[in-house]
Amino acid sequence: MRAWLELVRAPAALSVPGDTLAGAAAAGRAARPGLAAASVLLYWAGMALNDWSDRELDAVERPERPIPSGRISPAGALGVAVALTGAGVAAAGIFGGRRGLALAGLLAGSVWAYDIKLKHTPAGPAAMAACRVFDVLLGAGPATRAAAPMALAVGAHTYGITLLGTAEVDGAEPSTIVGAMAATGATAALAAVACRSGGTVERLGAAGLIAGYLATAGRAQVALCTDPDPQHVRQAVRMSILGLIPLQAAAVAGRGRLAQAAALLAALPAGRWLSAKVATS
Fold first, then answer.
1. Alpha-carbon distance 24 to 275, whole Å?
2. Which segments of 8-143 does DSSP mark as H helices, in order?
3. What pTM was computed for the model?
4. Are the C-beta atoms of residues 38 and 138 closer than 8 Å to each other?
5. ∠ Cα 57 59 62 (to 5°)
6. With contact defined as beta carbons under 8 Å apart, do 210 and 229 qualify?
7. Do 7 and 80 form a contact (C-beta atoms < 8 A)?
8. What pLDDT band is residue 15 in, cutting at 50, 70 and 90?
9. pLDDT digits over 260-270, tens only?
10. What are phi and psi of 224, to 5 degrees?
11. Which residue from 22, 34, 23, 42 is spatially nearest to 213, judged by alpha carbons?
């Protein structure tokens, strides 16, 4: 079981349901748990496909991963990726109708394009960012324009994580660190724009959560300036993934949905604990 949890980066999936919650809040519509479940299924599919696609490279660079270590077969990983993709798209169609089905199809297509073709190209970070943009819009339903600033914020954040991920084996160059930090700054700015329409209390709460995002993701990235070795890069990637949670909570709290924001934040300590137990990068 541990091998399968490592394959799909199970703890990192705690950062996924908040995408659809943030999209729904930005669009002013009720959240749909079924769409959040679809997002998680597609995320897990992407992680399994990632390891299948990188199995030969991981045999050299990360022999401890489930496939090169022999704990999971390549065929098993690919089969899980296909099954999870189908289940995620189907769930989006059931709970989101035709629009949900269409957005989930775009999301799934982006995931497969990234893992199979684009990951090791200059377009890789942008392709991964597009995946999370579609994920936020999946929760927004028809009101995609209203949710666009928050979707772009999540996309910018994902761009920075993916950029850092390219340095997990050899360590980070200064340009990589600067690029990731710039993406984090852009994320905070876009999130502030997305949360500007609430009342004073809502805006203050959102601002505090955006500051929390910067403390979680930004601090780990700044630390790389003095120690950019691979171990610290992987730690920065893990913390950046978890940093998405207060960012999502800011979008939700900015619309006065405090209970949902609290539920998202409750996942943060659990994610930190689980990421220490199960590999997420």
1. 27
2. 17-27, 33-53, 55-61, 74-113, 124-140
3. 0.89
4. yes
5. 85
6. no
7. yes
8. confident
9. 999 999 877 77
10. -70, -20
11. 22
